[in-house]
Amino acid sequence: MGVRVSREVTGASPAVRLVKVPADRAGQRLDNFLLGLLKGAPRSLVYKIVRSGQVRVDGGRAKADFKLRGGEEVRVPPVRLPEPGEERAPPASQLDRIQAAIVFEDDRLLALDKPSGIASHGGSGISHGAIELIRAARPGESLELVHRLDRDTSGLLVIAKKRSALTTLQRLMREGGLRKRYLTLLVGRLPEGRLRVDVALLKATLRGGERMVRTDEGGKDSVSHFHLLERRGGHSFTEVRIETGRTHQIRVHAVHLGHPVAGDDKYGDREANKRLREKAGLKRLFLHAASLEFALEDGSRPYVLNAPLPPDLSGVLDRLA
């Protein structure tokens, strides 16, 4: 179902639009609805007009992550969008790289083995994230991010090709029906066995726009399970399964355990990172989204997606042996 403009508001702001949210957009975040409506608008611009109160939902202010129900009237202010060809197209080498990263595809979704260093989406000075690149590589296709990975985290990133797949997968994420497994190297000797971390996380944005997360009872419930796989050079190659998908969850929970993720330049151990760089050639965050398991069509269509540990990280383990 397409998005229709209910009417234009005339007078002082003739270009203001009032848009009725179609029923099939129920559950979609306000920022993603606006990004689909304002084709070509930078994500940073969408966040700006929402924060400033220029966007209204049924006459009231709303946050960017507000979940629409369908049927609301959204006030959309006039914005200047890039003219065709004005926004720099991503280099052909990046388009080739993102297409080569596709590890699974069917009629409902595709999965990328996202390289470290590529953001999930653009914004905050990043012109092209994974979703912008795959859209540029496949113009005319309907492609939506199901979830996100940190820029420095490699591994599985799922993109929906159909609205029905997007809403089902997002529901599964909320209900714990999407099982995520990560591989990481933690600094120091993690105790053997399985460790459950159930510690709430609070996200804050520092001056300059940098996001930081800390443990805080007033934050959102967050649960991670750590399982030592083997020791390497005095450090711990570890499997992590998460029940929730909070920003920087594994990284902050690892610090809470006293064993930060190797190569983490935001929350990690600077001296340990330096030694690992010199000894084992670790040049980035050692965190990889290795597998995803879920089922669509009321459980009748199971998916098991895998992305092997990339060569740069497996090489670190070899040099630590």
UniProtKB/TrEMBL annotation:
- Output the Pfam families linked to this UniProt entry: PseudoU_synth_2, S4
Catalyzed reactions: uridine(955/2504/2580) in 23S rRNA = pseudouridine(955/2504/2580) in 23S rRNA; a uridine in RNA = a pseudouridine in RNA
Gene Ontology terms, MF aspect:
23S rRNA pseudouridine(955/2504/2580) synthase activity; RNA binding
> RNA-binding: is it a keyword of this entry?
yes
InterPro entries per UniProt: PsdUridine_synth_cat_dom_sf, PsdUridine_synth_RluA-like_CS, PsdUridine_synth_RluC/D, PsdUridine_synth_RsuA/RluA, RluA_PseudoU_synthase, S4_RNA-bd, S4_RNA-bd_sf
| Domain (RNA-binding S4) ranges | 28-86
Q: Which domain of life is it from?
A: Bacteria
EC class of the enzyme, as a word: isomerase
GO terms (BP aspect): enzyme-directed rRNA pseudouridine synthesis
SUPFAM superfamilies hit by this protein: Alpha-L RNA-binding motif (SSF55174), Pseudouridine synthase (SSF55120)
Residues crossing the lipid bilayer are none
Active site per database record:
150
* Name the record gives this protein: Pseudouridine synthase
> Organism, per UniProt?
Alkalisalibacterium limincola
